Amino acid sequence: KAGVTQTPRYLIKTRGQQVTLSCSPISGHRSVSWYQQTPGQGLQFLFEYFSETQRNKGNFPGRFSGRQFSNSRSEMNVSTLELGDSALYLCASSLDGGTSGWPDTQYFGPGTRLTVL
Amino acid sequence: GENVEQHPSTLSVQEGDSAVIKCTYSDSASNYFPWYKQELGKGPQLIIDIRSNVGEKKDQRIAVTLNKTAKHFSLHITETQPEDSAVYFCAASIKAAGNKLTFGGGTRVLVKP
């Protein structure tokens, strides 16, 4: 079974631009979560989507947004890029969104490395 | 919200020795604790996880223990090998928060041949 795929793998943008990152979850997985990884702040939760609905949101400004499509693929968008948005953006997918009563096991993609100049 | 602390931040061991990484969490409602290994240029890879209804879980050379009373959990790697060199992250999750993972700061493990 193919793992989580993320495109593009690398991006270079300039301040003020916007960017869209894409994530394809493992086949059959319905939940997609996004995380930001930086050397200073570590791994931080951005948001989670399940059945095309945002279920949970981390502590990030409104410039960070996302969506999920009916095939469970997800995109995240960052508008008005700032230097501090340079990071590795990770997508994780899980099977059924934790409806069993326990949080689901999450599987991560390779990430998109975003550099803002 | 949940806070997870991880120690040590770096760990150097001789090949064949054991490595232990410890994490503490703040929210007693947390009920799922995964460990991830991240190699350079790759995303985190799940290596073992434990639910709060279990005190210990083992998978070959890797084991995780959970102490709910003290709110801490540990990763044990025995008979370390050079390929175990990586950054390891612990995390905690609460069912009420969906699948949100709160991560520790990471431990860079170096296994010296």
Task: Provide an overview of this structure.
By secondary structure, chain A is mainly β. Chain A is built from no helices and eleven strands. In chain A, strand 4 and strand 5 form a beta hairpin. Chain B is mainly β and 113 residues long. In chain B, 38% of the residues are buried. Chain B is globular, with a radius of gyration of 14 Å. Classes of the chains: A mainly beta (117), B mainly beta (113). Chains A and B meet through strand 4, strand 5, strand 9 and strand 10 of A and strand 4, strand 5 and strand 10 of B.
Features of the shown structure:
heterodimer; A: about 120 residues; mainly beta; seven-stranded mixed beta sheet; B: about 110 residues; six-stranded mixed beta sheet; about 0% helix; globular
Please give the structural blueprint.
The complex is a heterodimer of chains A (117) and B (113).
Chain A: E1 5-7, E2 10-13, E3 19-24, E4 31-38, E5 42-50, E6 53-57, E7 64-68, E8 74-78, E9 87-94, E10 107-108, E11 112-116
Parallel strand pairs in A: 2-11
Antiparallel strand pairs in A: 1-3, 3-8, 4-5, 4-9, 5-6, 7-8, 9-10, 9-11
Chain B: E1 4-7, E2 10-14, E3 19-25, E4 32-38, E5 45-51, E6 56-59, E7 62-67, E8 72-77, E9 86-92, E10 102-103, E11 107-112
Parallel strand pairs in B: 2-11
Antiparallel strand pairs in B: 1-3, 3-8, 4-5, 4-9, 6-7, 7-8, 9-10, 9-11
C-alpha termini separation of chain B = 41 Å
What is the succession of H and E elements of chain B? EEEEEEEEEEE
The greatest interface between two protein chains, and residues involved on each side, is:
A-B, 29 and 27 residues
Output the number of helix runs of chain B: 0
Number of strands of chain A: 11
Overall mean confidence score, pLDDT of chain B: 95
Largest sheet of chain A: 7 strands, mixed
Shape of chain B: globular
What proportion of the residues of chain A is helical, as a percent range? under 10%
Radius of gyration of chain B from the CA trace? 14 Å
Quaternary assembly: heterodimer
Helix content of chain B: under 10%
Described by the principal axes of the CA atoms, the overall outline of chain A is: globular
- Helix/sheet category of chain A: mainly beta
Mean pLDDT of chain A: 94
How many strands, which pairing sense, and closed or not: the largest β-sheet of chain B? 6 strands, mixed
How many strand segments of chain B? 11
Which stretches of chain B are poorly predicted, pLDDT < 50 over at least 5 residues? none
Strand content of chain A: over 45%
